[in-house]
Amino acid sequence: MAVDLCSTTLTGISAKSSSFPWCSIWEGLGNRRVDIAKLKKVDCIDQTCQFVLKSIADYQATLASTGISCTVTDTSTGSLINITVLGSVCDGIAVTKTAIPSNFQNITTYTPSPISFLTPAPTFLSTAPTPAIPSTTTTPSSSGEETKSSNSTGIVIGVSVAAIALIAAILFVIWRRRRAAAAGQALPSNQPYGRLNSPQPNSQKPSSGAGTTSSSHKDGNAFELDKLDLDMHRVTWNEVHLVKMLAQGAYGEVWLGEYLDGKIAVKRLLPTKTTKQDLQKFIYEIHLVSKIDCPYVVQFLGVTWSKLSDMMLLAEFMDGGDLRQVLEANNTKRSFTWTHKIHCALNIAEALVFLHSMDPIVIHRDLKSRNVLLDADFNAKITDFGIAREVDETTLTAGIGTYRWIAPEVLVYGHYSESADMFSFGVILSELDTEIVPYSDLRNGAGKPYQDTALLAKVMAGELLPSFSPDCETWFVHLARDCLALDPLDPLDRPTAM
C-alpha cells in the first residue's frame, strides 16, 4: 500500500508542536490546510513563526529528491499550493515580535517528544550503533513488490531524518531566543567599545600613563568599565610581541607571543567582540585567573593594553598543543599511551579539585579537549574558563560544536554547577579512550552522521551519550559513566572532583 509521506510527516510534526503553539500554521497543517491570509497577519510578524514557515518550505527540498510534491490547501482562497510557498509568504512583512509571547513563557524550552515520533529509542553508550531500519516482509514470488517496498523504506528513512532536523532547528531557535533575552538583561549596552587593533610584532608602542576606565568610541560616546585590580598586573605594552596566531574561538583568539625573551600565550578578543559587555566579561575573566595559582591550571603572567579595547591576557605557553590535537595526531604517531592518558585525566581532575575548592567556588563552564593544554612531556593543564563563559549560538556552533561537552541541564536551563564540570570531564574521558570527537561515531536511522542541529536536540534531551571502545578498561568506563549521569537534580548521580 502506498505511503502518503507528506500527510504522515506534516501530521506528525503538527501534533508535536507544543513548544511553539502561538504560530497559527499548526491549526490546520495536520490536515494539509493552511490559511495564507492569517499567516501574513499572525505568523509573519513573529520571528519564530517566520522561521517555522521557512523550515517547512525547505523540507520540500528533501521530499522533491524522492519525487514527491507536498501540497496543502489555502483555505483563504481555496487553491492548492506547494509548501514551498510558505518560504516566501512573509516576504516584505516586517517582524514586530521577537520575544516569546507572555502567555507561553512557561513552556518547556525543549522536550524530547517533537522528534521521538520519528525515531526509535537510542542505545546509550553504544560503540557501534545499528540503524533501526523498518522490516519488509516478502514472498519468493514478489521480487517486484520487495524492490518497491525497499525503495519506500529508504524514502521513509530519508524524509524522517529531514523532519528530525526541521523540528530540532525550530526548537534550537526558540532556545536561542530565550538565552539571548536572558543574557541581554545583564548589561544593556551592545554598542561597540572601541576597536580591537591587530598590531604586528615590534609595532606596539608603549602606553602613556596608567590605564583608564573609559575609552571613547568613534561617535564620541564613552563607556565606563570596572578594571578591578588589573593595574597591579599590567606589563608594558611594547614589551609584548605577537608572533603568530595559534587558535581562534567564538569570542577570542590565542597567539604565540614573546615577552622578556621567552615564549608566552596571548589571548585577546575578536574584533567583532568589543562591546562594553564583551570587554567587561573579559576583564572579569582576567581578574579571576589572576587569583588562581595551581600547577594544573595554565599560569597567569599578566595583562597589557594600550587602550582597553586592545586588552590582552598573558599566560604561560604550553608547547605540546591541546588535547584534541594530541589525540588526532595519535592516529599515526601512537606516542600518547594509556599511561599518558591516565596521567592527563588525573591532571584535569586535580585542576577541578582546586577550582571547586576555592571560596567562592570556581566552575570552569567550558571544559573540553581544546581547553586542555599539554607540554612536551604530556603534562596537562586546563585553560580558558571563568565567569565570562556563556552558552549561546556562537559558542555552540563555532568549529566542533561546544555542546558536545556541555551537560544537558546547562543546554536546556542554562544552569551551571560543579556537576556540569564533571559531565564535561566524563566526555573528555570518552575522548581519551576512543580518540575521536564525541558523538562523531553515532549514526541516525539512515546510517548517516547526525547533523549538528539534530545532534544538539538529542544531547539537550539526554538521549545520547558519548561512546567507549569495547576493549576499554571496565573501571575507566564506569568512572566516565558516573560522570555522565543524566539526573543533575540528584547530586549523588555524578561524583564530585574531591
TrEMBL record:
Start-end of Low complexity biased regions: 197-208
Transmembrane segments: 155-175
UniProt region (Disordered), positions on chain: 128-151, 186-219
Keywords, in A-Z order: Membrane, Transmembrane, Transmembrane helix
Gene3D superfamilies noted in UniProt: Phosphorylase Kinase, domain 1, Transferase(Phosphotransferase) domain 1
Domain Protein kinase residue range list: 240-498
PANTHER family, per the entry: PROTEIN KINASE DOMAIN-CONTAINING PROTEIN (PTHR44329:SF214), SERINE/THREONINE-PROTEIN KINASE TNNI3K-RELATED (PTHR44329)
Keyword Transmembrane attributed: yes
Protein name per Swiss-Prot or TrEMBL: Protein kinase domain-containing protein
Keyword check for Oxidoreductase: no
One MF term in the entry's GO annotations: ATP binding
